[in-house]
Design a protein that fits this description.
It catalyses: 2-C-methyl-D-erythritol 4-phosphate + CTP + H(+) = 4-CDP-2-C-methyl-D-erythritol + diphosphate. The protein is α/β, with parallel strands linked by helices and about 230 residues long. It is built from seven helices and eleven strands. The structure holds cytidine-5'-triphosphate and the ligand C[C@](O)(CO)[C@H](O)COP(=O)(O)O.
C-alpha cells in the first residue's frame, strides 16, 4: 500500500509579514520547511513526499528539500490552500485510488512520528482522518459582534494537520468541490465534510507542540519548542 505525504508550502505568510514566505524562516537554526519535510521523510510509513510551493520560490524549495530522499516532486501551488491541494492531487494523478495521502501544513514544523502513526493507523479502516486537540478556550460563534451560538466546549476540538485520506476519496470530494462556484474551505477535511457528507471523518489525537506558525509571536514559541525538542 502506497503512502504519500504532501507538504503544503504554497502560502506567502501575509500574517507573519516577514517579507518572504514564513516556511523559509529558521527555528532552532533550520528552515521551517525543512523541519516539516524531514518529519515525513524520516517516517518509515511514508513512501514519497510531494512539496507544493508558492510561485517564484520553487528553485529555493527544491534546493532546501534536496537532502530528503523521499521528495519526489516540488510543484507550484495556487492562490489558496485549496488550490494548492488541487495542484498536489494533479501531481498524484498516477497514484492508485487506495493510496494513503497525508496533507500537512509546511507551517507546522513540529509534527511528530506518533501523530503521523495515529493518522496512518486510522486510515486502515477510515477514508478520512483529522487530527484534533481540545480547546482550552471557550469558543463561540459570532454575528455582527454578538454571540450567535455557544457550542459546549467538550464537543469541540481544534484541527491540526496532517489530515489523511484514501486518495480516491479526496479526489472525489475535490471533483465535486471544483464544480461549486461558492467553494471556500480552510482545510481538506472541510472539503470531504461538505461535498461527501456520508464519509465519516475519524478524529485522532493531535499534539499541542504541532503548532501552526502563523503570527510573529508563533516564531518565539517555535524557537522555544525547537530548543526543547533538541534536548529531549
Ligand atoms: N495558497 C496557499 C496558501 C497556504 N498554503 C499552505 O497552507 C498552510 C497553512 O496556511 P497558512 O498558515 O495560512 O499560511 P500562509 O497562507 O502562508 O499564511 P497567511 O494566510 O498569513 O498568508 C501553510 O503551510 C501554507 O504554506 C498553500 O499551500 N497554498
Ligand atoms: C488546516 C488547518 O491547519 C487546520 O487547523 C488550518 O485550517 C489552516 O488554516 P490557514 O488559514 O490556511 O492557516
Amino acid at each position: 500500500m502506497r503512502t504519500v505525504a504532501v507538504v503544503l508550502a504554497g502560502g506567502i505568510g501575509q500574517r507573519m509579514g516577514a517579507g518572504r514566505p514564513k516556511q523559509f524562516l529558521e527555528v532552532g537554526g533550520r528552515p521551517i520547511l525543512s523541519l516539516a519535510v524531514a518529519a515525513f521523510d524520516a517516517h518509515p510509513g511514508v513512501d514519497a513526499v510531494v512539496v507544493v510551493m508558492a510561485a517564484g520560490h520553487l528553485r529555493a524549495a527544491a534546493a532546501l528539500t534536496a537532502p530528503y530522499g523521499k521528495v519526489a516532486a516540488v510543484v507550484e501551488g495556487g492562490d489558496t490552500r485549496t488550490a494548492s491541494t488541487v495542484a498536489a492531487l494533479t501531481a498524484l494523478a498516477d497514484e492508485p485510488a487506495d493510496a494513503k495521502v497525508l496533507f500537512h501544513d509546511a507551517a507546522r514544523p513540529f509534527v511528530d512520528a506518533a501523530t503521523i502513526d495515529r493518522v496512518l493507523a486510522a486510515l486502515d479502516d477510515a477514508d478520512a482522518v483529522a487530527v484534533g486537540v481540545p480547546s482550552a478556550d471557550t469558543i463561540v460563534e459570532i454575528a455582527d459582534g454578538t454571540v450567535a451560538a455557544m457550542p459546549a466546549r467538550h464537543t469541540l476540538v481544534r484541527f491540526q494537520t496532517p489530515q489523511g485520506f484514501r486518495l480516491g476519496v479526496i479526489r472525489a470530494a475535490y471533483d465535486r468541490a471544483l464544480a461549486d462556484p461558492a467553494l471556500h474551505a480552510t482545510d481538506d477535511c472541510g472539503i470531504v465534510h461538505r461535498y461527501l457528507p456520508d464519509v465519516p471523518i475519524r478524529v485522532v489525537a493531535g499534539d499541542e507542540r504541532n503548532l501552526k506558525v502563523t503570527h510573529p509571536l508563533d516564531i518565539v514559541i517555535a524557537e522555544h519548542l525547537a530548543t526543547e525538542t533538541e534536548t529531549v
